[in-house]
Specification:
42% of the residues lie in helices and 19% in strands. With 431 residues, it is an alpha/beta fold.
Amino acid sequence: MSTSNEIINEILKESKGQYGIFCINCIFMHSSFKDLKKLANEHNIVIAADSKTKMDFLRDFAIHFYVQYKNNEDIENQYESSLDYMGNTLLSYPEINQHLSKFDFIAKQELIDVFSDFCADLGISIFDTSNIVEYSLDLYLTKKTPLLRTEAVFVRTAVELDQENYDATLKLIQNAKMVSTWTVFVTTPAGVYKLGMEKLIKDMENLDTWLYVVNPQHKKILGISKGKKSKSYDTDLRDIYIQKLPREPVRAPSQVIKFSKYEFNEDESYKPKSFFMFELLPEQEFERIMESTAEEKAKYQNIFRNLIVIDIESGISIFSYSGQKSIDENLISGFLTAMDQFVSEFGGEDASMKEIDYKGFYVQAAYGDYVKIALFLSQPSDKILKERLDYFIKQFENNYTLQIKEFRETGSVNMFDRKKLIDSAKNLLKI
């Protein structure tokens, strides 16, 4: 009978030369012991007596799923490998699946910025196309080599990717071939999981489109498949489109600095058959990656002052959180009294996401179906923070709909987990 170390070595040997979109080690690190123990009980997974850490649990899980996979023909026919079986089983549990957001970008602008930095280091100029209605691109890339080479880029986070959005994007990619030499699709591991990797690769190959996956956990960009030059490229239409671009690129190549903080390995890239949904990393390699990609200090901590979540119906605060340099409560109270009036002065559908200058502070107001939020800052927010606030209010309402209704009946806030809300606010808003 094989020892546990022999089985782990066999798993690693079988996956040598393969690259995973999802790191199972990361999934375990984000999961709680409580949830892992619950899953172990449901699958009769034997946890060794000396297993104390999550990496110990990972070893026990990997061994269990490997043995199950090798000894069950039905399972073997259903999944590509024991890691595929294990990964899909883990993510079928809501308690584990909720951590998919860690493999995505909450704000689309963050994903756009990461890919722009990567392209600039390749000697490419990147243009923002958000104000150009035609073709609905996210970015337009140009490079003279010596002829002008252009690329139309479509960026999608998992948050926005549903079947309708994806189907529409495929049509947009086809249409964009008229104004660009190549087309590019960029998403995240969570986006790949949502769409299905085989389907995504097949669709992009059918469209002759470059496919990139940006992994925020490992701070790595994966080049999955290469695109081909467009057969419907029209230089006249291209020139008309280029005339509409901003005068200056949002990112241009530099001979002095390197923009990207993400790793890209050319030798591992553009081999679609070498990519699989899940991978298991040796413990030392995983520790090295975690050290090199450690979370940076909360980006907006220095400008954050106060966050208040208010029930729309009653106007009463449900939850509030203050930074180290909080604002006087009387000043906050005065703003909240007139908050709706301030917001309505902007008019238009996006009024609720406008920034309000109030007595030397900047207040980002956001409205949901049940609650409204006021985020007090010492400096104006950027596009990324606005997108993160929009995501936070949606998550709050999704997770606490029943509690909000109970609050309206009782006036009590005891049903809201304050510690969990603070952790969520810090994580999602980087405050």
